[in-house]
Amino acid sequence: MNDNDKTLTPTIGASRDFSNAQDAVAYLEELYSTATEFLCDHFSRVSREGRPSARVRAFYPEIRIAISGFDNVDSRLSFGHFTHPGTYVATVTRPDLFRYYLTQQIGLLIEHHGMPVQVGTSKTPIPVHFAFSGVSDIVVPEEGALDFSLRDVFDVPDLSTTNDDIVNGYGHPYGADEEPLAPFTAQRVDYSLARLNHYTATNPEHFQNHILFTNYQFYVEVFEDYARQMLADPESGYESFVGPGNVEIARADDPCPAPEKLPQMPTYHLKRGDRGGITLVNIGVGPSNAKTATDHIAVLRPHAWMMVGHCAGLRNSQRLGDFVLAHAYLREDHVLDDDLPVWVPIPALAEIQIALEQAVAGVTKLEGYDLKQVMRTGTVATIDNRNWELRDQSGPVQRLSQSRAIALDMESATIAANGYRFRVPYGTLLCVSDKPLHGELKLPGMATSFYRTQVKNHLHIGIRAMETLREMPLERIHSRKLRSFEETAFL
User: Fold this and answer.
1) pLDDT of 443-477, one tens digit each?
2) What is the model's pLDDT at position 214?
3) Residues 255, 259, 265, CA angle at the centre, nearest 5°?
4) What percentage of the chain reaches a pLDDT higher than 90?
5) Dihedral angle at the C-alpha atoms of 287, 452, 202, 79, nearest 10 degrees?
6) I need a surface site. Which of 123, 133, 280, 385 has the fewest CB within 10 A?
C-alpha cells in the first residue's frame, strides 16, 4: 500500500454493551467527540501545511440492538419497542444535543426488552463539513480555495445516506440484514442541523419541542411581548428568549436587537428546561418555505407543530378576523407529491383539535354555540399559486366547493402533511384576512377593529394550546395515529 492509499483514523473505542441509558449516551458522546476533534485537528493542520500524504477519516458512532424473538412487551406505547426479531441500527450525531431524547428512547428499549444496547463506531464516515458544528473558528472553504480537492482528503456529504428513505418507507439504509432503529440517519440529521442554522439564524440547540409556524411578521412582535411578560414572572417556568443571531435574553427589560439582515425564516425561542418551551418560525409565504422548514425541524423530533397564519375565507358568512380550525386538508401545494401521494389522507388529530378549541374558548371567553361567532371548523385548501384569482376561476372554485373548503392558504396542508410524514403531531388554526370570492381583497385599509383584535388574540391561542399539550403525557400526544405497520422503535 502506497502513501496515497493510507487512511488516518482516530483510535477507536471498542463496542460496549449498556444496560443503563445514561451510560450509553455518555459513551456515544465520547465516541463522537473523539471523532470530530480528530477531524478538526487534522483540518486545521491541513489548512496550515497543505495536503497530507494520507486520507483523513472518522466515523459516526452507532447504536445497535439484536432482538431474537417475538417478545411479549407492553405495546401500549406507539414507540420504544420492537414488533419482530432483527438487528436494529442507528447512526448518531450530536449526542450532546439529543441527550434527553436518546436517554429516553434507549431507556425504553432496555426497559421493554430487558436487553442491553450496544454502542460503538459505525462504518459511516463523518463529512468534514458537519464535524465543525458549534466550532466557530473553523470554516470549510469553498471548492477551489485550497490547493487540492477537499474530497481527496476528507469525506464530504453523501446523498446516498442523506435522504428520507426511512420515514418514506422506501428501504433500509444500513444493509439487507439490518433494520433502522431511528427515523433519520446521522448524515440526514447533520444536513438539517446545518440548514436550520442557515435559514433561521439560530442554533439548533435553542429549538423547543413545541413549534408554531406563521406567515405574518406581526405575530413575532406579539410573541416577543409575551416572552417578556413571562420572563418578568418568576413562576412562569420560562428561562430565556432567543432571537435571530442567537441573541439571548433572560430578563424582561434586556434589549434583543435584530441582526442587520434577517434570515429567510426568522425564528424565536421562548425556552424552558428540557426544551419544554415554544419556538415561533416566520416561514413567510408559500408551500416551498413550509416544506423546507418542516423538513429540517423534523430531525429535532419535536412533540407538536402548528400553523397559526392568515388565510382567505371562502364563505360569505365569515368575517375578517374569524378563526378557522382545520379538520381536513385539500392538498394542491404539490411540493410533497413525490414523498407523500395526494391520495394519502391527512387526518385531524383529536388531541391537537381539542387543545386548540379550548384555547380559542379561553382567550375569546366564548363557549359552546357562541364559539361559532368567531370560529369555523372545516377543510383548509392549500395551493401553490398566490394569484389564483387572476386566472379562470371555474376550476379552482369548483374543487374548493366540492371539498367543502372554508379557507384557502399556501402553507397549512404542507405543514400538516409533513407532520404526518415525519410522525410529528400537527394542527392548524388560521385567521381570515381576506375574502376574495366575496369582494374583500387583501388591501390597505381593509382591516376592521375586530380583525385587529383577533390578530392579537391569535398567537396567544396558539401559545395556550401548546402549553396544554406540554402537560399531556408523551404517550398520548404521540399516539398510533401517525405510526405505520412497521415503525422505528425510536420516536
Assistant:
1) 555 556 666 777 789 999 999 999 999 999 888 88
2) 95
3) 110
4) 61
5) -60
6) 123
Any idea what the Cα angle at residue 156 is, between residues 151 and 157, rounded to 5°?
150
- State in Å, rounded, how far the first CA of the chain is from the last one: 45
How deeply is 346 buried, as exposed, middle or buried, from its count of CB atoms within 10 A (0-12, 13-18, 19+)? buried
Q: Do domains 3-195 and 201-482 have the same CATH topology?
A: no
pLDDT, one tens digit per residue, over 52-105 is: 888 999 999 999 999 887 777 766 788 888 888 889 999 999 999 999 999 999
Rounded CA separation 473/103 (Å):
17
Residues of the chain falling short of pLDDT 50: 1-4, 439
The CATH number for 201-482, chosen from 3.40.50.1580, 1.10.10.10, 3.30.465.10, 3.40.190.10, is: 3.40.50.1580
Extents of the domains making up the chain: 3-195, 201-482
Distance in angstroms (rounded) separating the CA atoms of residues 408 and 315: 11
Bridge pairing between strands 426-434 and 310-313: parallel
CA gap 19, 8 in Å, rounded: 32
Pick the CATH number of 3-195 from 3.30.1730.10, 3.20.20.80, 1.10.10.10, 3.30.420.40: 3.30.1730.10
Q: Nearest Cα to 123, choosing from 9, 213, 40?
A: 9
What's at 63, amino acid-wise?
I
From residue 36, how far is each of 87, 94, 164 by CA, in Å?
27, 10, 24
